[in-house]
């Protein structure tokens, strides 16, 4: 059922998102997740995590809060039903907004790239362990031939 109102690629400015923060007379609740705009007004009462957590982000970017919860892939796919547009390019780099695709593969920690390229302590620990092992092998070898 495609109609003009179903256009998920309508370009929406951040100031328009900010107006739909529940306090507006229309009572709408819009949020931004990775550069996409969602109208979650009707979803609030259905949200398994409760209304309040989403309401706190009404009219704002909720990407970090959404990711912090560790939403399931099902939850991520559900967001599609509420997308009403994309954030204007010029507004994507403003503080507090996150760009990027909202696809399953983009969930932090979900892709092998996040692990391989993450600068966490494990990336330091593994080379360090190899270094120590090489040192002891070398020490053992020099003792053998001494
Ligand atoms: C369109 C947007 C959203 C959808 C479709 C959605 C969907 C869901 C679903 C399906 C769950 C059940 C658990 C899961 O499957 O992961 C859930 C739980 C939850 N969500 Fe959302 N959510 C949305 C936005 C948000 C936002 C913006 C926040 C935070 C500010 C949030 C916070 C939570 C919390 C705290 C839980 C409970 C987690 C738990 O009990 O372990 N959600 N959400």
Automatic annotation (TrEMBL):
Keywords: Heme, Iron, Membrane, Metal-binding, Transmembrane, Transmembrane helix. Residues 9-88 form the Cytochrome b5 heme-binding domain. PROSITE patterns: CYTOCHROME_B5_1 (PS00191), CYTOCHROME_B5_2 (PS50255). It is found in: Membrane. Pfam families: Cyt-b5 (PF00173). It comes from the Eukaryota. One of its GO terms (molecular function) is heme binding. Gene3D superfamilies: Cytochrome b5-like heme/steroid binding domain. Its main location: membrane. The chain crosses the membrane at residues 120-138. Signal peptide: none annotated. GO terms for cellular component: membrane. PANTHER family: CYTOCHROME B5 (PTHR19359), GEO08203P1 (PTHR19359:SF41). Belongs to the cytochrome b5 family. This is Cytochrome b5 heme-binding domain-containing protein. The lineage of its organism: Eukaryota, Metazoa, Ecdysozoa, Nematoda, Chromadorea.
